[in-house]
Amino acid sequence: MFKPPSTDRRLTPRTAANSRGIVVATGIEIACVIADTSDGGLKVRLDRALVLPARVVVVDVAAGLAIEADTAWRQGNETGLKRRDQASLRGLVPSRWLMAREAWIRAGGR
User: How many Cβ atoms sit within 10 Å of the Cβ of residue 50?
Assistant: First the structure.
């Protein structure tokens, strides 16, 4: 039986995450579900279709991790993001991660 070629263009495999997150950017703090992750990026699902800014920080609440990412694509209420940098939100953080850390604490992060 012939199988059509995959349309997945990732260089690294993705892993289902289904974890609670928060998208943070200037003037935006919105809950999301981190649907899946890979070394190069992640997919987030919002509760409504929303155009995110070109660069955002996604807070993985359970992991206590802030992931800076660029918007790669959007389809309905899902957005694909390309990873740029990340940092732990536990303990002291540099000032560039303060908005993410405060959102994490408000969400119950410890």
Answer: 13
29/21 Cα distance (integer angstroms): 10
What is the CA 26 to chain-centroid distance, rounded? 15
In this prediction the pTM is: 0.86
Which residues, other chains included, contact 65 with Cβ-Cβ below 8 Å and sequence gap of 6+?
A: 59, 86, 87, 88, 89
Helix (H, G, I), strand (E, B) or coil at 39: coil
pLDDT tens string, the chain, 110 residues long: the values are 554 554 555 567 778 888 999 999 999 999 999 999 999 999 999 998 889 999 999 999 999 999 999 999 999 999 999 999 999 999 999 999 999 999 999 999 88
| Cα separations in angstroms, 24 against 1, 5, 8, 29, 30 | 46, 36, 27, 5, 7
Whole-angstrom Cα distance, residue 58 to residue 81?
9
